[in-house]
Write a structure and sequence with these properties.
Shape of chain A: elongated
Largest sheet of chain A: none
Oligomer: homodimer
Structural class of chain A: mainly alpha
Largest interface: A-B, 36 and 37 residues
Strand content of chain A: under 5%
Chain lengths: ~190, ~190
DNA sequence: CAACCAGACTAACAACTGTTAGTTTGAATT
DNA sequence: AATTCAAACTAACAGTTGTTAGTCTGGTTG
């Protein structure tokens, strides 16, 4: 079934938590093995390499973002509504995999074969984001400010969610999307 | 004189750049030596240890923030004005030492002796920040939203400046403070 | 000119790194 | 009861890690 959790998945989940705490480079295969309660060599019955783990963590999330953005891009919504959907996309992905987001943000540069692929996905995501903002400025929905500043500001906050969401209870996360959209879009000035 | 650049400073500056690119753990003393055009062992004529370098990078910046916040806290200004000053503080420190900010953000957990000290400084900084926001809500200057969400949102953007500022020209940075304050405080909704 | 010394060097260390090869185990299947 | 096999193990590897000890060099100072 699709809900089956393999030993490989357990290893990747454990690695994800360790990578969040210390970063990819500072986590050794022996650290990971100890956290799993086995010896380092045993890990290799389930994974190809340390790099294999990083790839599994990062690429799947990056593709999730691409997929989400594609839907938003194509949807017939106002710019403000699209921005709300982007906030929601980040909150959802991050609350499902906060530790994975840490690797995505901090360890992408340690990707080897897949580095180029990752950079391509990120570049396209940011381009789509900027296009949405530019459309919003043209249609007079958004203040006429440098679109890069706007994207940078919103995206920085959304990319940092992984640091913050684990400290919140389940219920609060439901409110978070609305709360964040408010602050990011309408500002805090009264 | 105070403007003298010692060999130690050169090493720390070079290390700072490398740490930004790959993170503290992934940079070896041999990498650093090669970037300096010398052998690894020669580094130890100028520094005590690898950890010594990290300490020098992070603690000085963290204390700069503490100092800046102390001034803002004590100043007799409106909340909005204080928030503008915080934005300015981050832009100034980051544009002077963008690479150091990368270590501050990403490698603080690799501090050993100084970890506790760093965490104390950060805790106090965030407490001061939250207090300013709470005062602004009480005095009706700021919308009544969760102060943590507001701080988190602003601080995430300011902490990510190091990724962004190096891509901008000198002149643009002067505008950046105003631009960012606008977006963060007044929002983007028209 | 002799003495000094900052700052480079070579050589080496013990510990740690990711990974491989080959072996054992114990539960499920025939 | 015999076979199979996933998944653990031990042992070892070649290379890398931060760091130390001791040495050489070339310019400055007495």
């Amino acid at each position: 079934m699709s809900t089956e959790v393999t030993r490989r998945d357990e290893i990747i989940n454990t690695a994800t938590k360790l990578f969040k705490q210390k970063g990819y480079s500072a986590v050794t295969m022996r650290d990971l093995a100890k956290a799993m309660g086995i010896k380092a060599a045993s890990l290799y019955n389930h994974i190809d390499s340390k790099q294999d783990i990083l790839k599994a963590i990062i690429i799947s999330i990056a593709e999730e973002f691409t997929q989400g953005m594609d839907l938003i891009k194509k949807s017939e919504q106002t710019t403000i509504e699209k921005l709300n959907l982007i906030v929601e996309l980040h909150v959802n992905i991050t609350s499902n995999n906060a530790c994975g987001m840490a690797s995505l943000n901090n360890d992408w540069m340690h990707l080897e074969d897949q580095l180029e692929h990752y950079l391509e996905l990120r570049k396209n995501y940011e381009q789509d984001f900027i296009d949405i903002i530019k459309t919003g400025i043209s249609s007079n929905e958004i203040i006429k400010t440098n679109p890069e500043v706007i994207m940078f500001s919103i995206l920085s906050t959304l990319r940092s969610l992984y640091l913050w969401i684990p400290k919140k209870e389940e219920v609060v996360i439901k409110d978070l999307t609305q709360n964040l959209s408010d602050v990011l879009i309408n500002g805090i000035n009264k």
